[in-house]
Amino acid sequence: MKRDQDILEAYMMVDEVVGNIKSVRKNIDSDFQVWYKQILDLSEKLGIVEASPRKTSIQRNRSNIPSCSPIDHYKKSVAIPLLDSLTIQMQDQFSDEDRHTRHLLYLVPSIIVNNTLELSEATEGMLFWENDLPFPKSLGNELRRWQIMWQSAEKELPSNLLFALGACDEDAFPNIHRLLLITCTLPINSAEAERSFSLVKQIKTCTRSTMCKERFSDL
């Protein structure tokens, strides 16, 4: 992640990754043949013989996967489950439970002019930050005016949160300005530790380490 990356770009990257996984899953028949050829080349160098696991009448730890060849077996038992699992995990990790944050992305002008989301639904989602808004009751009206302003704009529409914040008049759109400030400061990933700014040496000095409890209490 870049230091100046905003949450809109992060969501776009997530959607792109999920789309790529789904595309690979859709074209698994052709893509897996390429992968399997590379696997066979590596197996030949390592002296591993191509073979499918044996099938028995009773399976307790795994099921018998119907297949007519080793490539068909590994495609059905390894590749397809892996891609399906990745898709499910990505969708669960970035699910609609964070819909309040996704509604904030509606404020970006390049999105709001093409978005089919109802203003009432967007307003309801943004009211999650009602306590931070100066005039929460007028948020719906502001959103309508914000959308109309950019639909009639002849200049290039801001395509990220920072540009949208710079183009937002705080006096005309106080609620939207506050929401854009909130969105621009939402963290994308966990905080990083800056070891160069550590205060441990200033707190736990050599003198402090050798100081007895009695003197420390007196100080």
UniProtKB/TrEMBL annotation:
Its domain of life? Eukaryota
Q: Which GO terms describe its molecular function?
A: protein dimerization activity
Matching entries from InterPro entries are given as: HATC_C_dom, IFN-induced_PKR_regulator, RNaseH-like_sf
Domain HAT C-terminal dimerisation per the UniProt entry, residue ranges: 169-215
Tell me the PANTHER family matching this sequence: 52 KDA REPRESSOR OF THE INHIBITOR OF THE PROTEIN KINASE-LIKE PROTEIN-RELATED, DUF4371 DOMAIN-CONTAINING PROTEIN
This chain belongs to the protein called HAT C-terminal dimerisation domain-containing protein
Q: Which organism is it from?
A: Pocillopora meandrina
